[in-house]
Every structure is written in structure tokens, then in C-alpha cells.
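In response to the reviewer comment on reproducibility (Comment 2.3), we provide here a single inverse folding case reported in full, input and output, so that an independent group could reproduce the run without further information from us. The C-alpha cells appear first.
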């Protein structure tokens, strides 16, 4: 596989953009957006970002029409020498088209969403030889009427695999495995005077897996899950304060998920597990222009997370309830974005939270006891300050999250280290005509 010198590519692009900026100064109709911009500005829930908002709430499809966006990729692992090992992840592409004066529709492909792609449920089904759902598809539809925009985004991904080993002796062993996630997001955006608005979105998804194991010499065994229902709610406002340019941005989010691994037929004396978790997070911040075309956005948040596992031992009859509860207060997110030139944008962000975390395990039944442990921790201990840049060429925008290690060791031609200039790259193209 060919390796592309990313530094050379970036420098070439920069020179190209520079030449264009002289021929058409201050001409740009691009919409800088994406995960790279979101992370570079401090993982900011108070940020207005086209790709992030459209992914979360399809009603924004009535605003961002004739708009293409996506993630080019990100690295995720390192070896002992701290040379980067590029592992492509989080790559997806999306587009949203205008259909008449009131309708818009689009498609997002390959974006992983849902609990099926993470946590204990993923660990469980992978242990059964089941793979993640593949090629996720999200459809976008939005309708705008007066000051309201409504959106609907169905989402679906599935994987299946059939394995058969008849053997010379006619063993007749087969596996029929599958995993899937399906659901939808319903959203709205209500606009008010003075460039103010309120948005809300509700997401419901069903996450499931199944492994059917047939053997001519033994009964058929099925592994799957009960529950698997995921419920998410998000609401946010953007309100002008007085006669100034400062916008007040409150938000609230709630999420819940529960599932149980199941074996049929049930083994006598086997343990059973029940998983459940929920979280709530809310905050208030500001969004205001600075230094001409610049932007400062930030605020404070707080919330509560609860993760519970209930295990019943079939042999002893004892039940153990293990809980991890986390109080987040405060959480700070701050981002600054400004134009370095007519085609180059700089970004810096800060993200930090203080978390009061408590673990508690309580056993009841034939045996009993309680174990507790609590500690005060900080989020993202290795990453608090983020840097980013964005290039705009007419309607095209390329946004990158800077890799700090690049500044520490220098480019490969000087250091001999395989360093990436960017930890993440996002792109977008605005082909709206008016």
C-alpha cells in the first residue's frame, strides 16, 4: 500500500490556496465543519457546526442544503517508540440535497452510531465470534414551514455470517451469526427573531445480536440479547442577549440503555447478567464573534452518569449489584477560532472536567457484603488543550486537528519519526447556489 507524504500534500495545498487567495481575496462560501473542528475547539457542546449538528438532528437538513461533508480518518494507536501507527477509523461521507423550496433529503454512509459498536455488549458478542454491523446507512429528510424545520433520519446497519463444517465424519456443525442496529432520529429546529433558535432531537435504536449453533450430536443453542433499546434526547437553544452580538447557549442531553445476554436453552446453575446505564448532562455557555471574523465559544456543564451490572449466581442464589456512579461538576469547554488569512483559519480549544466517581458492589442472598471505592478524577488527563487549522478554497473546506507530537519531534525528514501532522481530517463542500 502506497504511503503518501502528508506534510508534502499539506504544503502543496497551502501554496495552492495561497495563490487562489491573491486572485480572489476574501471570497469563500465554504462551511468549515466536522469532527476535526469540533475537537480542535475543545469538544464544545456550545459550538454551532454544520456536520455535527446535522448528524445529531436531521432538522438541520432544512438549513444546510446542497452540502457535502465527511471524515477522512483518524489515527488511534501508538507503538512503544511513539511513532504513529495509522489505523483508519471514523471515516464516513454524507450529502444533503435541496428538493424544492421546502424539502431536503440526503444520505450518510459508514458512520457508526449506537451502543452496538461499544461497551459490554460489543465485548460479549465478539466473544461469540460475531462481528460489528457493517456499512451503516442513515437517511435524511427535512421539511421546512415558516419558522419551523422538521427532520427524520432512519438508521440501519447489519452483519451476518454462516459457518458450516460437515467434516469427513459428517459432524454437521453450523453457526448462524448476526448483529444489527436500527432506529431513527426525529428532530426540529424553531427559529425566532434576532437570529435566535431552539432545537430538539429524540433518537431510539434497537441493538441486537444472535448466534445459533447447531450440532447433530447436541441440542441447538442460541445466544442473543434481551432489551438493547437505546433512548437519547438532546435539546439546545441559541438566544441573542440584549442588543449585543453575544448569544446565550443552554443545552441538555439524556441517554439510557439496557440489555441482558441470553442463552437458550438456559444452563442449570449458570449465572445471569443484566446491564443498564443512563446519563444526563446540561450546561450553559456563550457564542460570540471576536477579532472581526473570529469566534469564541465556551461554557460550563454538569451531569450524572450511572452504569449498573446485576449478576445472579444460579448455583448459590446470591445476587451482586455493581454500580459506577459519576458526578461531573464542573466541566469546562472553551474554543477560539480566527482567520489567519483569507483562506487559513486557526483554532485552539480547552476541555476539562472534574469527576467524582464512586464504585459500589453489594451482594445479597446466601452470602452478603458491600465493597465501596470512590475517587476524584479529571477527564482527558493526556489531552486538555487542542489545536487545529482549516483551509477554505472557494466552496471547499479541509479541517484538521493538529498532532502535537509533530511539533515536539519535527517532520520525518528531520527526526526520522513517522509523525502525522494531523490526528484527524474533516472535509466539506457547499454547493448551494443561493
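Designed residues, in position order:
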Amino acid at each position: 500500500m502506497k504511503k503518501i507524504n502528508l506534510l508534502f500534500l499539506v504544503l502543496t495545498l497551502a501554496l495552492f490556496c495561497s495563490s487562489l487567495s491573491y486572485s480572489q481575496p476574501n471570497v469563500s462560501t465554504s462551511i468549515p465543519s466536522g469532527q476535526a473542528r469540533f475537537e480542535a475547539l475543545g469538544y464544545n457542546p456550545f459550538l454551532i457546526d454544520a456536520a455535527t449538528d446535522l448528524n445529531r438532528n436531521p432538522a438541520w437538513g432544512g438549513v444546510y442544503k446542497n452540502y457535502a461533508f465527511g471524515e477522512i480518518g483518524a489515527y488511534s494507536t501508538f507503538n512503544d517508540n511513539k511513532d504513529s501507527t495509522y489505523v483508519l477509523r471514523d471515516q464516513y461521507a454524507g450529502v444533503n440535497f435541496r428538493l424544492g423550496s421546502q424539502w431536503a433529503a440526503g444520505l450518510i454512509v459508514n458512520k457508526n452510531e449506537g451502543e452496538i459498536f461499544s461497551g459490554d455488549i460489543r465485548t460479549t458478542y465478539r466473544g461469540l465470534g460475531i462481528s460489528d454491523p457493517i456499512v451503516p446507512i442513515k437517511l435524511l429528510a427535512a421539511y421546512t414551514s415558516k419558522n419551523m424545520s422538521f427532520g427524520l433520519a432512519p438508521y440501519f446497519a447489519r452483519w451476518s455470517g454462516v459457518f458450516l463444517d460437515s467434516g469427513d465424519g459428517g459432524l454437521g456443525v453450523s453457526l448462524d451469526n448476526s448483529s444489527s442496529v436500527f432506529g431513527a432520529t426525529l428532530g426540529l429546529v424553531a427559529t425566532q427573531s434576532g437570529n435566535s433558535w431552539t432545537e430538539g432531537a429524540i433518537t431510539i435504536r434497537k441493538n441486537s445480536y444472535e448466534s445459533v449453533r447447531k450440532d447433530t450430536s447436541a441440542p441447538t443453542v442460541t445466544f442473543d440479547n434481551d432489551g438493547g433499546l437505546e433512548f437519547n434526547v438532546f435539546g439546545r437553544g441559541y438566544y441573542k442577549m440584549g442588543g449585543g452580538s453575544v448569544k446565550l447557549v443552554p443545552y441538555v442531553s439524556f441517554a439510557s440503555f439496557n440489555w441482558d445476554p441470553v442463552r437458550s436453552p438456559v444452563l442449570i446453575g449458570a449465572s445471569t447478567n443484566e446491564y443498564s446505564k443512563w446519563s444526563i448532562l446540561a450546561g450553559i455557555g456563550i457564542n460570540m464573534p471576536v477579532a472581526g471574523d473570529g469566534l469564541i465559544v465556551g461554557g460550563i456543564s454538569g451531569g450524572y452518569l450511572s452504569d449498573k451490572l446485576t449478576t445472579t449466581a444460579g448455583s448459590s442464589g446470591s445476587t451482586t449489584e455493581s454500580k459506577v456512579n459519576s458526578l461531573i461538576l464542573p466541566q469546562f469547554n472553551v474554543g477560539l477560532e480566527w482567520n489567519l488569512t483569507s483562506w487559513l483559519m486557526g483554532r485552539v480549544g480547552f476541555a476539562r472536567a472534574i469527576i467524582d466517581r464512586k464504585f459500589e458492589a453489594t451482594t445479597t442472598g446466601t452470602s452478603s457484603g458491600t465493597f465501596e471505592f470512590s475517587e476524584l478524577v479529571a477527564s482527558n488527563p493526556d489531552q486538555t488543550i487542542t489545536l487545529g487549522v482549516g483551509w477554505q478554497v472557494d466552496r471547499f473546506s479541509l479541517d484538521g486537528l493538529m498532532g502535537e507530537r509533530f511539533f515536539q519531534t519535527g517532520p520525518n525528514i528531520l527526526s526520522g519519526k513517522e509523525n502525522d501532522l494531523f490526528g484527524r481530517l474533516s472535509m466539506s463542500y457547499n454547493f448551494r447556489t443561493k
